[in-house]
UniProtKB/TrEMBL annotation:
Species: Sulfuritalea hydrogenivorans sk43H
Protein name: OsmC family protein
Lineage: Bacteria, Pseudomonadati, Pseudomonadota, Betaproteobacteria, Nitrosomonadales
InterPro entries xrefs: KH_dom-like_a/b, OsmC/Ohr_fam, OsmC/Ohrsf
PANTHER family per the UniProt record, alphabetical: PROTEIN YHFA (PTHR34352:SF1)
Amino acid sequence: MECTVRWHDGMSFVAETGSGHLICMDGAPDAGGRNLAPRPMELLLAGTGGCTAFDIVLILKRGRHEVSGCEVKLQAERAEVDPKVFTRINMHFVVTGKNLKPEVVERAVKLSAEKYCSASIMLGKTAEVSHSFEVVEA
C-alpha cells in the first residue's frame, strides 16, 4: 500500500492513494488552514469507521443474512497534550436487514473488533475502544 501527500497551499494538503484516488485535507483557521476539507485525524476516524463497517457487511453477506444497511457512528476523545492521540472511541452500529438476529450482528461486530478491522485494532493500542449496536428491521 502506498500514498503520496503533497502540500498544496496554506495548511492544505492533497493525498494521492496507491489506487489513484485523491483526498484533500486542510487545517483549522487557527492553525493557518481555511477549513476547506477534513482534518487528517478526522480522516483517520472515518477510515476506521469504513474499515469496520466493511467487515460487518461482508461477514453478514457471507453468512447469507439479508443486510440492507449499515451505519456506524463514531465518537472519539483525544489526549489533551501532544501527541494528541485518540484515547477513547465509541462505535455504535445501526444494522438494517430482514430477520437479522441480534446475536448474528453481535458476532459480526465482535469479529471485526477482535480479528479483522486493522484500523480499529491499531487504534486500540492507544484508545479504549467500545462497541454497541442496534438492529433495525427492513
